[in-house]
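Appendix C reproduces, verbatim, an entry submitted by the partner laboratory led by Prof. M.T., so that reviewers can inspect both the input and the predicted structure.
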Amino acid sequence: MKGIGDDAAILRPPAGHDLVVTTDFSLEGTHFRREWNPADSVGHRCLARGLSDIAAMGAAPLAAFLSLALPANLPQKWVDDFLRGFLALSKRHNLTLAGGDIAQSTSGVLADIIVVGSAPRGKAILRSTARPGDIIYVTGALGASAGTLKELFADGKTNNRMDNHRHFYPEPRLAIARYLREHKLATSMIDISDGLSTDLAHICEESGVGATLNQNLIPVGNNATLELALHGGEDYELLFTARKSARVPVEIAGVPVTEIGWITREKKILITDCKRPAKKLAVRGWEHFARNKKET
């Protein structure tokens, strides 16, 4: 690979691999606020968003491209701290910053990240391959990021807890994704960025199936509620399906893995507490261009 130093980078994926490419914006006032998020957290989260997409495909990251639009009066220290957070995460995952661009912004900080990864040819894990009878799993706990955000909206402060760390410094689940792909366990997968309800709906729509969740099994973050776990978003955990016969470990790479429901033939998403009849689950996670969305 030939990275920074020329007009363009040269990437060479491993033999017998497909390239996997994702891109994500991080926009001030939408994805972060400078008065709430330390600059190194903004840099970390910017890259984590892209790495989480790579993980969702069961791929390994190769290179990143970062483009920044910055206000003219932005302190240099903020930029230095942003890059410190970004590069610390990239170093942990042996990822090369291979290029990008910089420009002046008249409307706050805008960061665009492109991450390129690779997966063995034809082995990337898709959203469209869940089948009726598959079991639904999630990694980690859900709702922690939304719980921290709720505190910030309330009074601009958070308690110093690990749940808050998950909001400011989410860890993309690359090791878990690699394990699932290598052991041929996941039949479909997505990362939970827009909320469990919304991201499960993406899998169901792409696969032409439905789902039923057991609300008693959903792992809820310490500072969250079931409502936030279902609809909050920005947890960057993995949501995946596996055959009923698959031996999915209860922990992978030190992270809990929890069975939370099953895939159905009927194209509806339902939720049950196993005491009363299942009811339709409202899909209320993040939707781009939806009206009346709060800033995060």
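The chain has a mean pLDDT of 93. Additional entries are available on request from the coordinating office.
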